[in-house]
Amino acid sequence: xxxxxxxxxxxxxxxxxxxxxxxxxxxxxxxxxxxxxxxxxxxxxxxxxxxxxxxxxxxxxxxxxxxxxxxxxxxxxxxxxxxxxxxxxxxxxxxxxxxxxxxxxxxxxxxxxxxxxxxxxxxxxxxxxxxxxxxxxxxxxxxxxxxxxxxxxxxxxxxxxxxxxxxxxxxxxxxxxxxxxxxxxxxxxxxxxxxxxxxxxxxxxxxxxxxxxxxxxxxxxxxxxxxxxxxxx
Length: 233
What we know:
The two termini are 34 Å apart. The protein is an alpha/beta fold. The strands form 2 sheets. The protein has a 6-stranded mixed β-sheet, sandwiched between helices. A 4-stranded antiparallel β-sheet has the order 2-1-4-5, with helices on one face. Helix content is 37%, strand content 26%. The chain has a domain at 2-86 and 153-230: P-loop containing nucleotide triphosphate hydrolases (Rossmann fold). β7, α7 and β8 form a beta-alpha-beta unit.
């Protein structure tokens, strides 16, 4: 469904991604693992149109997205939940959610709002609350909910567990599984490799801008190099 082919991305003279290629099948959760600075967030930003590759291709269901601006990528079926949440802190919860649906012109927005409330009941209780006053976990729920309001076919998640308590991390990951089981294809960047591999179907390991390992989530979780580098064993 999502194909990334031979991406080269630069920050000035820094070669951040070097020939990165991978794919995400329809209905899969695919985890992208790696240490800080490996290029994980750069990959997601390139896939979602926030960065333009110097070389390579991003295709969604065969449609070329390389060089397409981010707002048009959203319209074509992909939503990005960035690292650090990036909610509109001065707007209310309701306003944040409706901003996710801003480019839409269909009549399914109320139904999608109810879908978000079913996933995150707490957001319904906080509709009139200013988003910047929410807890970290609540802000992460809002960021995911806002992305879902764009009605995407593919969801890009960048470090959804960052800064959250273990209890909230479990809740967020349970919700990611729920979203996937409803038919959403998910590309997940996550520093917590154990949690990511526990819910993913497949995974890739990125080191200094290059894919060095790939396989099923189970095989990666059993790989000695992955266990030593990312699972603390």
